[in-house]
Amino acid sequence: MRTIIFLLLFSILRHISYSINNNQYQSIINSFFQSTLQEVNADSGLVMLMDSAGNVIAKSSLSLLNGKSLEDEVYTTVRDMGTLAVPVSLIPVLEKGNVSLSDTVDVGNGIYNHNGKEIRDHNADMGGYGDITLQQAILFDSKVGVTKSLSPYMTIKTDYSPMEILNFYHSFAVSDYSICSAKTMKEIQQTFEMVVSEGTGKPLFSDNVKIAGKTGSVIKEDGKHEVSFCGYFKVNNAVYTCLVIISNPKNGYPSGGVMAGNVVKEIIETSFSK
Questions:
Q1: Environment class of 98 (CB within 10 Å of its CB; exposed 0-12, middle 13-18, buried 19+)
Q2: Residue 184 belongs to what H/E stretch?
Q3: What are 106's strand-pairing partners?
Q4: Cut 0.85: pTM above it
């Protein structure tokens, strides 16, 4: 009987501690996320933080158009996740050996017509990347490079819910080999690390905390930009995965690494630097 009571008390205390920690993270996100959206003059945005066990321990979704939180459905509603979803399509072609990350692709001037639709890289106005590897196309968020490399073998899908994307990146945070082979897992994890060390995620680089992940971007049909970052970091032997999406930022150049990345860095520095 004493053992049962002890276990019950332990479970209750553990739950209370877990809730307190959750409230701490939630409070931190609430305190700065709105000001971040205001700084870049965005229409709206969302942020989600997941722990090692796959629990969402904090989240926030705000609209500056009406000053209110978005409905909870925003986290599970399918939307165009843009280049943030590219690694999902990358796995099957790597597993089948259709492509290699070292394959070279000519992105030319960064403008490419695919099935009657013009695809533009973010640096098309500066002449594009020319010849790059598939891995570099991912590092530098080249839509043209990814499309030319993967489209001969599959239809690149980008429609997912934020929760689905968060879970996908969490699989790499905890090395969940149920989604791919050990070889592919290592290759993609290394690519995610390089995104932050030398790619479009470089604004997130930290000497104190190792961050890995990918920036994302999408141009909506109305011409509005949406920028994002999803990735993971390890602090005190625990791994956390974070997703940030910022819709229609009007101040500054639309950048997932800078705008969404700054939110991730703020979470790390405020919540885990002590």
A1: middle
A2: helix 182-198
A3: 131
A4: yes
